[in-house]
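Hello again, I could really use a second opinion on something today. Take your time with it, there's no hurry, and the full record follows here:

___
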Amino acid sequence: MDTRAAADRAADIIRERAGRRPAVGLICGTGFAPCTDVLTDRVTIPFEDLGFRPSAIPDHVNELDVGELDGVTVAAVKAKVLPCDDATWQESGLPARSLARAGCATLLYSANSGSMREDVPPGTFLAFTDHINFSGFNPLSVERHGHGWGTPYLSLAELYEAVLTELVVAAVVAAGVPLPTGVGGYWAGPCFETPAEIRLAQMAGCSISSNSFLPEVMAGYHAGMQVVAFTFVSTMSAGIGPPIDLGPVLDLTHKAHADYRGILRAAIPVLAAGAEEPHG
């Protein structure tokens, strides 16, 4: 796939249909697509029109919304296309790359995860400060140097933009939603991790386990966006709590919609005020 051409095509459609240029990109976590109702004056674009692979993951909506929040134009992706859903790494990253090409300088990414920390129980949120990739694959290895993007040989030391993350955490906490920070552990899925894998990740300093963030945050960063990422903790990680069951996980997610909307209302103005122009 020529991801630059595909992202440029999708970006043109986003701006044309919405009649405006988005400043902040949002990728919703599983079960949180309805929360884009915090945006006013919304225009909805089907994934099919944008050339995005449809997601078959439960509780995802194959649409992109463009709307307004406190004077900020936001483009919100309401489904994830992931390797655990048999997507290629390029297909997984295309929505994030398209947000950058449409004009988004920052990406607010939300995942779903299991917790490795007793002080971050199910039903709470956590912001990323870093991650460890346990999948054995680097998403940027499929992006050849000189094929429309900057070099894939880039430092990830500032992948999760530290100053913006601190500002977002402060704003979210002030709005009444606790938001501790920690390191994410990524596995490709679709099955959940083993207890031994979780013990190893704990020793390495991880706070959460997930299979839903790596392709998109790395693609968005490679495309030029500043990234702030957070996760909803929907279960404890393997070996720490009861066996993971997707049904209760989704039920708990639905109960957290009010806090998720609170995070969006607090974070998006901060991201718009602190953003730099995309450099991809």
User: Anything to note?
Assistant: The first strand starts at residue 24 and ends at 27.
